[in-house]
């Protein structure tokens, strides 16, 4: 069975559908240093992640035995845990050791997605009060054989009715595991036959998609939303760095839907897909309705980085 397949969408779109990957049938997962088969793994019903989504997470990608931007991801994980006042947080070296053990147990070296989850830990009884947590934290390392999830030819978006929170509601700099906003937006995208949902902030400006950051290209300038209602994206920051290094004009500012609709190009960024063209939003073709030259250039420059940089896991 192929790990992914393209299937027709509601309006003739091509949706990237995830199917079971046979390579993952006997995965070994890591829970607090304990390596167990995926079917034998268990998290306590008293764990904070189960009790209230009280956990933080990171998605990592393994390229040729190296994890790209690993330190930056672990910095963000630690920052989020500090913001949630976790009593104890594993060091970067401790987490890296558990990642290495997990990859070695699965003989993984390339084309792998790693989901790190750090919960506040196990409670002595159910309830939201962090003082009930007297054992923790819980570190879960899940590594899967998984190619990029988005169609490199381009994806479609539909604007969601679900808004992203600003810092005075829930600071997006906390990369937490409560993903209900994203799930509700994704449901709307599924119903509309789009690949993902474009999400606005409470002022009506573009925040991000339900899973990725967004960029537009307008008259040769690469533009992305300010960090008002979206997290500090690692891939987002990398693209901005690439622009700076290669003399490509770039800016961060508030973006309205009108600017999206009239853009010359649009693409989204994230660990799972790198840079992915957006060819249609709300039924409107973006630019020529296909990946544009700037998107292609940035995708190539990003691929060159991931092919040569990263922390070795071998």
Could you walk me through the main structural features you see in this protein, from its secondary elements to its overall organization?
The chain is of the alpha+beta class and 314 residues long. It folds into two domains: 22-145, 2-Layer Sandwich (D-amino Acid Aminotransferase, Chain A, domain 1), CATH 3.30.470.10; 155-308, D-amino Acid Aminotransferase, Chain A, domain 2. 25% of the residues lie in helices and 30% in strands. It has seven helices and 20 strands. The strands form four sheets. Strands 11, 12, 13, 14, 15, 16, 17, 18 and 19 form a nine-stranded mixed beta sheet that branches. The protein has a seven-stranded antiparallel beta sheet with strand order 4-3-10-7-5-6-20. Strands 1-2 form a two-stranded antiparallel ribbon. A hairpin with a 2-residue loop joins strand 14 and strand 15 (221-224). The protein is globular.
